[in-house]
Predict the 3D structure of the following.
Amino acid sequence: MFNRYAPLFLPNTVAVVGASSSGNGRQNVFIRRIRDLGFNGTIYPIHPTAREIDGLPAYPTLGATPQPIDYAFIGIAGAAVPDVLRAGAGRVRFAQVISSGFGETENGMLLQESLIEIARAGGMRLLGPNCLGIYTPRGRITFTETKSQELGEVGIISQSGGLGTDIVRRGTIRGLRFSGVVTLGNCADLGANDLLEFYLADPQTKIIGLYIETAKEGRRLFEILRAAKARKPVVILKGGRTKEGSAAASSHTGALAADYPVWIALSRQTGCVLVDTLDRFLDALLTFQQLTLRIDGDDEQVPRIVLVGNGGGTSVLAADYFSDLGLPVLPFEKKTHEALLALKLPPGTSLANPVDCPAGALQQEDGLVAEKLLDAVYRLARPGVLILHLNMTPFVGRAKPRVLENLVKAVLRVQKRYPGQAHFMLVLRSDGEPRLETRKRRFRKRAIGLGIPVFDELSDAGHALCAFHQHQYFVRSRMTQGVHA
């Protein structure tokens, strides 16, 4: 399976159709982007008359290049695309058509069908049309501006190029590291099912995310996911859940979206996770990336959750919100409460769960006081999840820079003393002040490097935890059924 898609994810030769000698078009930008990202293969600009583009020798057609083409990036008027593909017959493995005006328009379906016929006759696979292309750190190809060359474990399939751009750029800032991002557009040839099969077989990909508006072969999608037995988490952001959204999807890619209850049934039967916003999509993927599933425990669906942080009102709202998600934050038993009282934390500290510590209390001993508190919580309450939430504003100008890092390291030391007991999640809340946001970005990056998922609000962490445990519960329950079968 990997060898079949290697020319797409690890191309040695790339052709760019539509680049100009003036160097101002998106095709020229694509050439510059992949050079900046470190692509070290051969780039062939294709132009009917130019002899050189961006310092590279240009060729008149896809059939005239010195070597066969692994990946062709085609950005010309839709009506001209069929002839370009014909010229590449037998010499192009994957062709991606960025052009629009095909099946997403009233009069473009025949033109789109001609692309499929020409591609199949010429032995090539077609990506698009009406799609932005791919981002592959292993192949150093990108359709969007990014400097990240770091190869990760998250494979993305997106029917939307715009959302694909958001996923790469916003996901990278949040700490996601990708094995690949493929935008599909109209799915005239290659579709979500094809790429899903690849990611399931790809040893580099451990987590899969799909933005999908419609599955042309819904039964095949179900069979692929069922056969996978949830061995890799699959997070689906479904576009077209409502009548209005379905109409928008139809105008976007020219396809009709199935009723949303069908997708809910798919989730329940295959273990994939459905989310309803881009932020929740990214947060769920980050959680699967950072935390290790515990599938060897019992099939208890709801873990013991402990919230620790500064902000009483925030803690109260979080307890409500988590309860609404089916993740109750239960008060400590008497022995845990008494052990925490014995620590003699400053007045104003609430020790019931959620644990509300004023910023001043958390700053005692440069943040190391948290280790004593957390050790008692881990030893006596035995949480399955510990969420540390920090409103960063009170720390600015009042705490030494190392306090926040000491707080996190204290949690990690406690985690080591009680291995395999609790997942640790971090929430960094801020007010948008530029200096604070800069500090938050730096601290987020360090925390991600330590294996900690980081969120902007407790509600974000709640939804991500919900997705994580939904998948974990599905896997555990199926294992239990297998034992009893």
About this structure: The domain at 294-481 is CATH 3.40.50.261 (Rossmann fold). The two ends are 32 Å apart (CA to CA). The mean pLDDT is 89. Residues 318 and 352 are 14 Å apart (CA to CA).
